[in-house]
Amino acid sequence: MTPVIEGGDVKEPLRDRVLGRVTAEDVLKPGTADILVPRNTLLHEHWCDLLEENSVDSVKVRSVVSCDTDFGVCAHCYGRDLARGHIINKG
């Protein structure tokens, strides 16, 4: 996932797009092989701050569109429970 840019202006920054989502793969520190955010991590405010501080420009996140579960959507692909602020509960 990348920021939404139209006409050279950032319409929606990366932080706003990934907040509450779960990483699909390790996010590496730009220019190195160091893992900045591990795979399957719920991106809350702390992680988004870390992404901004390290100038990360794209993050691969899990999505309900590509979820491989047989029935419904798994918790990782659903992401953050907007009422409670943590990963959604099962069921």
From TrEMBL:
Organism: Raoultella terrigena (Klebsiella terrigena)
Alphabetical keyword list: DNA-directed RNA polymerase, Nucleotidyltransferase, Transcription, Transferase
Gene Ontology cellular-component terms listed: DNA-directed RNA polymerase complex
UniProt lineage: Bacteria, Pseudomonadati, Pseudomonadota, Gammaproteobacteria, Enterobacterales
Name of the protein in its database record: DNA-directed RNA polymerase subunit beta
Gene: rpoC_4
Keyword Transferase: yes
EC number: 2.7.7.6
GO molecular-function terms, A-Z: DNA-directed RNA polymerase activity
Top enzyme class: transferase
